[in-house]
Amino acid sequence: MKKSLFFIAAVLLSFTAAAQSPETLSQIIQSEHSTCGQMAYLYCVYSELIPETATFEEAFSVFQKNFPIKKRLESSSPVTLSDLSLTCAKLSGLKGGLFYSIFKNRRYAFKELQAKGILPADADPSDNPSGRNLIAVFNGCMEQKEE
Q1: pLDDT in tens, 31-57
Q2: 35 - beta bridge partners?
Q3: 77, exposed or middle or buried, with CB in 10 Å at 0-12, 13-18, 19+?
Q4: By three-state DSSP, how is residue 78 classified?
Q5: 29 φ, ψ to 5°?
Q6: What does the DSSP assignment read for the chain?
Q7: pLDDT at residue number 20
Q8: Sign of the dihedral through C-alpha 39, 142, 129, 73
Q9: For the chain, first and last CA: distance in Å?
Q10: Rg value, the chain, Cα
Q11: Neighbouring C-beta atoms of residue 60, cutoff 10 Å
């Protein structure tokens, strides 16, 4: 119990620089399965493309304009770890290995995040992360960016 409260407090404190709405962050943290809208919200707030008061649907609309998505998705569609990996890698300007540097696709972004320890080694690219894990991956990539 103490560990989960500490984790939530650490996540909320780490987001104060990006200044997201506490209600929106709480909604993301409490979700068992994260959506493309939630991922788009975090991406767009980090990129300063939307205000913190924007909805997930508004964020997803802006995300689609700024981030080419090849497959047909909606704001409420579940996000996969491979989609999340590519999004976070592009947001943080991840300098990856040879294959990620050449192809810059979901597969190699996922493998690169595993190699950097942001994703567990036994993670499956088709898994749908929880809201907590969604935020943890974004934070891990942003820490890599700062280094």
Answers
A1: 999 999 999 999 999 999 999 999 999
A2: 78
A3: middle
A4: strand
A5: -60, -40
A6: -HHHHHHHHHHHHHTTTTT--HHHHHHHHH-SS-BHHHHHHHHHHHTTSS-TT--HHHHHHHHHHHS--SS---TTSBPPHHHHHHHHHHHHT----HHHHHH--HHHHHHHHHHTTSS-TT--TT----HHHHHHHHHHHHHHHH-
A7: 56
A8: positive
A9: 31
A10: 14
A11: 26
**Rounded to whole angstroms, how far apart are CA atoms 49 and 52?**
10
Q: Give the tokens for residue 34.
A: 């994260």
Residue 129's Cβ-count burial label (10 Å; 0-12, 13-18, 19+) is: buried
* Distance (Å, whole) CA 44 – CA 74: 16
> To 10 degrees, the CA torsion angle through 133, 135, 136, 137?
90
- The Cα–Cα gap between 131 and 88 comes to 15
pTM given for the model:
0.83
Query: What kind and span of H or E run contains 132?
Result: helix 131-146
Phi and psi torsions of 35, nearest 5°: -115, 165
> For position 17, what pLDDT does the model report?
39
